[in-house]
Write a structure and sequence with these properties.
Oligomer: single chain
Order of helices and strands: HHHHHHHHHHHH
Largest sheet: none
Distance between the termini: 31 Å
Radius of gyration: 22 Å
Number of helices: 12
Structural class: mainly alpha
Shape: globular
Number of strands: 0
Length: about 230
């Protein structure tokens, strides 16, 4: 299942040269897994066992609901809630688990997400592919360096993935990634500062020049979290 829905050519997410390519990679993986899980896979016994156990995080529940297949979501919730009752509150009040044990099981359940697990599994392998391509192919190295930015989250993940690169390459790779992230941060700081200055009465008026600052708050949130505010 994973090989079918989480396989995306690395070059496909780098070619657009628009925003953070690793965000684009993560987003496409999420789209594929969400589409899969709200479709026919919802009725596959082995998949349903996993979704019953793991459930979904808030972000991925939102993505599932946006597909407007509410019955699929309801059916998964029905059996997932049954599973939660068994796992957290199993047993009669006098002979069951203590409230402390119940709370610990609840905490584990709250941190679990089927989509996150699938995406994390695929991302680990795709980030390794990015490092391998950068190391072996000059054309990809050039494509990497032509990207407009990397968000903070994915800059960190790429640098961590580079641990498996050769000593000869790892330093240059991390430096290239750092340049993409830091250059965008410099630009973003300027845009946010300009946005703040535009609220000075001296900068008001119909001809006020906002430059690229109007969406700087949203872009800053994305840069810091890898998620665009809705």
């Amino acid at each position: 299942m994973r090989e079918d829905i989480t396989t995306i050519p690395v070059s496909e997410v780098f070619e657009p040269r628009d925003g953070c390519p690793i965000c684009r990679m993560r987003n496409r993986l999420e789209e594929r897994v969400v589409e899969y899980i709200t479709g026919a896979a919802m009725m596959e016994p082995d998949v349903r066992i996993e979704t019953n156990k793991k459930g979904f995080c808030f972000t991925h529940y939102q993505q599932m609901l946006k597909r407007r297949n509410r019955l699929s979501v309801a059916l998964m919730l029905e059996t997932h809630l049954d599973e939660m009752e068994k796992r957290i509150f199993a047993g009669l009040p006098l002979f069951g688990k203590s409230a402390d044990k119940q709370s610990k099981d609840a905490a584990k359940a709250a941190e679990s997400c089927f989509v996150c697990e699938q995406v994390d599994w695929a991302m680990e392998r795709m980030l390794a592919s990015v490092c391998r391509l950068w190391e072996q192919e000059r054309d990809f190295r050039k494509l990497f360096e032509e990207q407009p930015c990397l968000c903070i989250t994915h800059f960190s993940q790429l640098c961590a993935a580079a641990d498996k690169m050769s000593k000869k390459s790892v330093g240059d790779f991390r430096k290239a990634a750092s340049t993409l992230c830091r250059n965008y941060l410099t630009e973003l700081r300027g845009d946010v500062s300009h946005f703040c200055k535009m609220f000075d009465y001296r900068n008001s008026g119909e001809d006020a020049d906002w430059g690229n600052s109007k969406d700087s708050i949203e872009r800053a949130v994305w840069f810091l979290t890898s998620r665009e505010p809705k």
